Amino acid sequence: MSFSLVGNNTGFLTRLIGSTRRGEPRYSESAIRCRVDVLSLTPKIEKTSVRTDSSASRGNAEEEVAAAKILFQVAAKPGRGDRFVVAETVLRIEAVTPRFDTFGKLDHYEVALVFWDADDRGNEL
Asked: Which domains does the chain have, with CATH numbers?
């Protein structure tokens, strides 16, 4: 029995095609329109274990962590590092997990994404 992903949202997937001489990511010129199921899309701030200063104060920094989980149809073929825009939110794919139906056939991809910092975007958007 198949999950048959229909999609509750539409987004745009841009493929990572390489990097510049400076190591900045390069993306394809065109974006692929995808129907997806958004499971979660909430920013989450967590404290890091790294000290923010050199003193012995128990200070720590805060960082935004992966808080988006989206299901993609098989035809979309998302990849790690790709850029995805949904609900006016720019995300970067961090992990892609294939999910299979009860007969062993690939049914959909479960994708973990992080929110894209404005500093990371550069001129690529």
From this structure: 9-46+58-117 (2.40.10.370)
- Give the gyration radius of the chain's Cα atoms: 17
Q: Which of 28-42, 54-68, 103-117 has the lowest mean pLDDT?
A: 54-68
As given in the structure block, the two tokens for residue 90 are 């720019």
CA 29 to chain centre: 19
Residue indicated by tokens 């790690």: 80
Task: Supply the pLDDT for residue 66.
Answer: 57
- Whether residue 125 has pLDDT greater than 60: no
Position of tokens 């690529």?
124
Q: List the one residue out of 32, 25, 12, 45 whose CA is nearest residue 115.
A: 45
Is 75 strand, coil or helix? Answer: helix
Cβ-contact 41, 87 below 8 angstroms? yes
pTM to 2 decimal places: 0.74
